[in-house]
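Worked problem 6 (solution included).
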Amino acid sequence: MWTVIDSPVGELRLVAQHDAITVIEFAPFRDGRVVGDRDDADPVLVEAVRQLRAYFARELTDFDLPLAPVGSDFQRRVWAELTGIGFGRTASYGEIARRLGMTNAASRAVGLANGRNPIPIVIPCHRVIGANGTLTGYAGGLERKQTLLSLEQPALF
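Solution. The predicted structure is:
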């Protein structure tokens, strides 16, 4: 099941399966990620909408949602590490690699896993930046990444 909400970064489609969020997708949406019918009253989706709205209103800094991202073991390890980057903070791809017990050489692999994150915002891949502090690739586009970072720390970007 799924629902759609408006946000400061455009429409978002939230998808849930088996009582967990599996996808948050930026518009324009791809048809292949939807399972089931639209259900704006599903309790998991209702709570996800509530928390996202609170986040965008700067009233929530930590999400507490059941998540079930689908990916490889390495991708899930990277995504788990991303959840440790606090609201208003950033980390480089190399820092994430080191936190995973890898060398800086794994930065590219971390970047690829970061780009495949199926639950952006809640799994905060937007908080990963280049080693020199610049904004680098973001599956939702750099403008969205900058908007999310500015929302969290207006003076940062």
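Discussion: The chain has a mean pLDDT of 91.
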